[in-house]
Amino acid sequence: MIKKCLFPAAGYGTRFLPATKATPKEMLPVLTKPLIQYGVEEALQANIKTMAIVTGRGKRAIEDHFDISYELEHQIKGTSKEPLLKEIRSLISQCTFSYTRQVEMKGLGHAILTGETLIGREPFAVILADDLCTHDEDKDNVLKQMIDIYDTYQCSVVAIEEIALSQSHKYGVIEGHLVDNTDNIYRVSDMVEKPDPKDAPSNMAIIGRYILTPDIFDILRDTKAGKGGEIQITDALKVQAKAGKVIAYKFDGKRFDCGSVDGFVEATNYFYNNTKDKG
Ligand code: UTP
After folding, report:
1. Is the C-beta atom of 257 inside 6 A of ligand 1?
2. Which of 137, 162, 234, 257 has its CA 20 to 30 A from that of 80?
3. How far is the CA of 20 from the centre of ligand 1 (A)?
4. What is the pLDDT of residues 7-40, one digit of tens each?
């Protein structure tokens, strides 16, 4: 059973400067909700109630967001604005939030290793809140779909989507073969972080959803800085992949790269139009 979800949220978010100078990227809102709240809602809908967040300097707003603001509560109690706090109140009452700080931003792999103290020795989920995922209302969300895959295969699971090869330099890219009688589940044999298109082993890129087995922490401890001088989760997963212990899952749903301005605007338009359509 997957009981905890880790949110690496310590990155500088330089693509959104100057907005992210004093505001965490994860707190940028798509409509009225910050990115990280969408992530926490996705985890909760996948029956995870323990949220473990890796923060860094300048990220305090995340902690304040998942806490009660008594002054605000007092101010809007009984007014027409009160319903606007309904969703966040409900999250706060159903989940526990714990935090640890990444002191030096040495990459996503290092951020995940920093979260070990909050996770312990159990399989866990990872959500990168800047990858915002949606799904059809009558289907499970992406993380829940991945948990079901984990339940079957009992090894690490990465979410993948097909990309234009020209974009391969932005992603971890997998090499793998379809598992028997499936058209969306691959056993991964290799992976490369941000390859040039000519070196990409496929057009299947890892997006910001993972289920990881706890041995990943031991592997990360031994993982040297890779592409961009950062400790890469892809390099650690590659060790598991070589042992046949990584499944890649082409998920059912849609994902927006809200870490980029284009993806963020696309998500905003999509959610706005959806809200309007529902009246
Ligand atoms: P990104 O590659 O998007 O980096 O990180 P970034 O710093 O957030 O943004 P840019 O590229 O400067 O605009 C992917 C995820 O990994 C986390 C980020 O917070 C984001 O969720 N991360 C990255 C860390 O927590 N620590 C790090 O050292 C690096």
Report:
1. no
2. 137
3. 12
4. 999 999 999 999 999 999 999 999 999 999 999 9
Closest listed residue to residue 23, CA positions, set 57, 49, 74: 57
Domain limits for position 210: 4-277
Cβ–Cβ < 8 Å for 115, 56: no
Specify the pairing of strand 204-212 against strand 124-127: antiparallel
Q: What is the pLDDT of residues 31-54, one digit of tens each?
A: 999 999 999 999 999 999 999 999
Tally of domains within the chain: 1
Ligand 1 contact, 153 CB (< 6 A): no
Cα separation of 72 and 141, whole Å? 32
Is 149 close to ligand 1, i.e. is its CB under 6 Å away? no
Q: Is 239 exposed, middle or buried (0-12, 13-18, 19+ CB in 10 A)?
A: middle
Which residues, at least 6 apart from 244, have a Cβ–Cβ distance to it below 8 Å?
A: 155, 187, 189
CB atoms within 10 A of CB 26: 29
Q: How far is the CA of 8 from the centre of ligand 1 (A)?
A: 8
Name the residue with the closest Cα to ligand 1, atom 16: 108
Q: Residue 85: which CATH number?
A: 3.90.550.10
Strands 131-134 and 185-193 come out as: unpaired
Helix (H) or strand (E) holding 116: helix 116-119
How far does the centroid of ligand 1 lie from the alpha carbon of residue 206, in Å? 15
- Residue nearest to ligand 1 atom 7, measured at CA: 11
